[in-house]
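INFO batch 0412 | record 1 of 1 | parsing
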Amino acid sequence: MRLTALSPEADGTVEALLEVEPKPGWITYWREPGASGIPPQVNLAGGATLVSMSYPVPKVLTLGDLTDIGYDAPVAFPLTLKKTAGELKLDAFIGICNEICIPFQASFSLPVDAGSDPAEAARIEAAKATLPAAPSSAFAVKAVRQSGEALSLSLTLPSPSEDAEAILTGPEGTVFTASGKGPDITVPIPGLPKGSDARTYDWHLILKNGGRAIETGIRLE
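INFO prediction complete | emitting tokens
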């Protein structure tokens, strides 16, 4: 793992980047890791606080009988921090998996008031380009309906002739996936309390199609 941090802005905001480079054949995880993974965790000390951690578009990964959500190549997580002066102290904890899963932790201490390196700023901007976009008129969710233990998504897609892939999170610790030709996709949501109304949960969606991806909250009809 590697941590990059730029100099603080006038209000103490610090743009930073946590880079993770697993060895070939190993994976690491998204914020909802799926069946068996460990989501990335970041803790700060020395007067710094974490404002946000952003996640590049993940993949659906199959390890034996398990389905996980994460990354099978080097990945960089943009961070927004608050810090006024002095050293930035950060502990990062991730899971990496191949045939077994291993927790991995690293501690970092960086000066953040010594001037920003343009090359590091460029790496942070390049990492931001890997994040899912916001919905647009050409790529969006038009409607969501519950049908038993499934959600039906009505979509506007930029490449309707190509498969669309949905990664859906609901109650904390749950992630559901589906793929198929649009403009309608059905996502099974097994395991919710029997008879529960999916409208009572907060749902969040990563939607991929035609080499593009969006991220959005969704509201059921």
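INFO post-check: The first strand starts at residue 2 and ends at 5.
INFO record closed
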